C-alpha cells in the first residue's frame, strides 16, 4: 500500500476575529494564498506538480464564497492547471481536507496534494452563510421536534451531565493559555505581512496572565430563560473564558506519496496512520470526539496509551475534558502546547492547524504517534493518527 506522508505543515498566527484584529484587514483568500506560497517556498517544489488543493471553510459566503480555495490557488500564483475545491464539515473542515488528500494519495489518485483551510471571522462573521434562514428543513424539524440547540448549549449540557463544575472548566482554560504562552511555535508559524513594514508573527489571542481568579468573574455566555426551563440541569458555566475565541487564520499541509517525496529529494516528516469520521447526537453535538477516537484506535490497532500526544480541539472546555474522562487519558499529553481556548478557533482553518501543531510537538519531544480529533456542528467528529518519521 502507498503511504501518504506529510512533507511540510504551516499556519498563520491567530488574529482576533473582529475589526481591529491583526489579520482583519487581509482578504481571506489572500490569507490562504500566503500559506500556499509558504509551503512552496519552504519545500522548493514546482507547484505545477500538485494534483489538487483541498481546502476547508465554514462560512462560504461573501469574501469566502465561490470556492475560496481556487481563488487562493490563483492568488498564490500557482499554474492555472492546479485545481482546487472547498469543503465544509463544520469545525473539522480542514481535517477532513487532510483525510481526503491523504486518501487520494493512498488510492493512487494523487501523487501530491495540499490540504488547507481558512476562516476570517472578522470579515465573514459566524452565521453569515445561512443568511438568517432555516438551514435545516422540515425533515430535521420533525425528527427533533423539541428543537436543536447551538453549540454553547451543547457545551452546557456536557458540563452538566459529566459534572464538570465551573472551577474545573476555568482551570483547564487557564492551563491552555499557560501552555500556549510557554510553547515555541516558531517552526510552524508563517509570518504574515499586515503593513508596509509590519508582520504578524505571534498568536494574538494568547493571554499569558490568565488565571482562574480572573476567569471566575466572567458571566455565562449562553443563558436563555426558555432553555433554562427546558434544561433545568444546566448551571450555566460556559463563559468567554472557557470557550474558544472567534479568530482569523489559515493553515496548510503538503501531502504526497512516500515514493514521490523520495523522487523529489524531500524528507517526509510523518505518515498518516489512521482515519475515522463519525456522526453523533446533534443535540450533544460536541461528544462525537469520543466515538471517533474509539473508531480510529480500533482501525489502527493502537491503545490510547500508545499515543504520545493528543490534540482535542478546545471548542469549549468540556469537550477535551469529557474526552479525557472517557479514555482515562494522560492530561500531560492532552493539548500540551495549549489549544483553541488560547490559540483561537478559525473554524475552517483549525483542522490543519491542529495537525501542524501536533506534528511539531512530536518532533520537539521525539514522540512517535499523535492523535487529533475535533467535534463538529450537526453532531460529527473526525479523528486522525499520524506517525512521526
What does this protein look like?
It holds the Pfam family Thiolase_N. Belongs to the thiolase-like superfamily. Thiolase family. This is Thiolase family protein. With 389 residues, the chain is an alpha+beta fold. 34% of the residues lie in helices and 20% in strands. It is built from 13 helices and twelve strands. The strands form two sheets. Strands 1, 2, 3, 4, 5, 8, 9, 10, 11 and 12 form a ten-stranded mixed β-sheet that branches. A hairpin with a 2-residue loop joins strand 6 and strand 7. The protein is globular, with a radius of gyration of 20 Å. It starts with a strand and ends with a strand. The mean pLDDT is 97.
Short description:
By secondary structure, the chain is of the alpha+beta class.
Instruction: Work out the strand percent.
Output: 15-25%
- Using the CA coordinates, give the radius of gyration: 20 Å
From the N-terminal CA to the C-terminal CA, the straight-line distance is: 17 Å
* SS summary, helix count: 13
Helical content, roughly? 25-40%
Number of strands: 12
Shape: globular
**Average pLDDT for all residues:** 97
Spell the H/E element sequence: EEHEHEHEHHHEEHHEHEHEHHHEE
* Structural class computed from helices and strand pairing: alpha+beta
Show unreliable segments.
Answer: none
Amino acid at each position: 500500500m502507498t503511504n501518504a506522508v506529510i512533507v511540510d505543515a504551516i499556519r498563520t498566527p491567530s488574529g482576533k476575529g473582529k475589526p481591529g484584529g491583526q489579520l482583519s484587514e487581509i482578504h481571506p483568500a489572500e490569507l490562504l494564498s500566503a500559506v500556499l506560497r509558504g509551503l512552496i517556498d519552504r519545500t522548493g517544489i514546482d507547484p505545477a506538480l500538485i494534483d489538487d488543493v483541498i481546502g476547508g471553510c465554514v462560512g462560504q459566503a461573501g469574501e469566502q464564497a465561490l470556492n475560496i480555495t481556487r481563488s487562493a490557488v490563483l492568488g498564490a500564483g500557482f499554474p492555472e492547471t492546479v485545481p482546487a475545491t472547498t469543503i465544509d464539515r463544520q469545525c473539522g473542515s480542514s481535517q477532513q481536507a487532510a483525510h481526503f488528500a491523504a486518501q487520494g494519495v493512498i488510492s493512487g489518485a494523487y501523487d501530491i496534494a495540499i490540504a488547507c483551510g481558512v476562516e476570517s471571522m472578522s470579515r465573514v462573521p459566524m452565521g453569515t452563510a445561512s443568511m438568517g434562514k432555516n438551514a435545516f428543513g422540515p425533515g430535521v424539524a420533525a425528527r427533533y421536534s423539541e428543537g436543536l440547540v447551538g453549540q454553547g448549549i451543547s457545551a452546557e449540557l456536557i458540563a452538566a451531565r459529566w459534572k464538570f463544575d465551573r472551577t474545573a472548566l476555568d482551570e483547564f482554560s487557564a492551563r491552555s493559555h499557560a501552555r500556549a504562552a510557554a510553547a515555541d511555535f516558531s517552526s510552524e508559524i508563517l509570518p504574515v505581512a499586515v503593513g508596509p513594514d509590519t508582520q504578524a508573527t505571534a498568536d494574538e489571542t494568547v493571554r499569558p496572565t490568565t488565571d482562574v481568579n480572573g476567569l471566575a468573574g466572567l458571566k455565562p455566555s449562553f443563558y436563555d430563560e426558555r432553555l433554562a426551563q427546558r434544561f433545568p440541569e444546566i448551571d450555566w458555566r460556559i463563559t468567554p473564558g472557557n470557550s474558544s475565541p472567534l479568530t482569523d487564520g489559515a493553515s496548510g499541509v503538503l501531502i504526497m506519496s512516500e515514493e514521490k517525496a523520495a523522487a523529489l529529494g524531500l524528507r517526509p516528516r510523518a505518515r498518516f496512520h489512521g482515519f475515522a469520521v463519525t456522526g453523533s447526537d446533534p443535540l450533544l453535538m460536541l461528544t462525537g470526539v469520543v466515538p471517533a477516537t474509539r473508531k480510529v484506535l480500533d482501525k489502527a490497532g493502537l491503545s490510547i496509551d500508545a499515543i504520545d500526544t493528543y490534540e482535542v480541539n478546545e471548542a469549549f472546555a468540556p469537550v477535551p475534558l469529557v474526552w479525557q474522562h472517557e479514555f482515562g487519558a494522560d492530561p500531560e499529553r492532552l493539548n500540551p502546547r495549549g489549544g483553541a481556548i488560547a490559540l483561537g478557533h478559525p473554524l475552517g482553518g483549525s483542522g490543519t492547524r491542529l495537525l501542524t501543531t501536533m506534528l511539531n510537538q512530536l518532533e520537539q519531544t521525539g514522540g512517535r504517534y499523535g492523535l487529533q480529533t475535533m467535534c463538529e456542528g450537526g453532531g460529527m467528529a473526525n479523528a486522525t493518527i499520524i506517525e512521526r518519521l
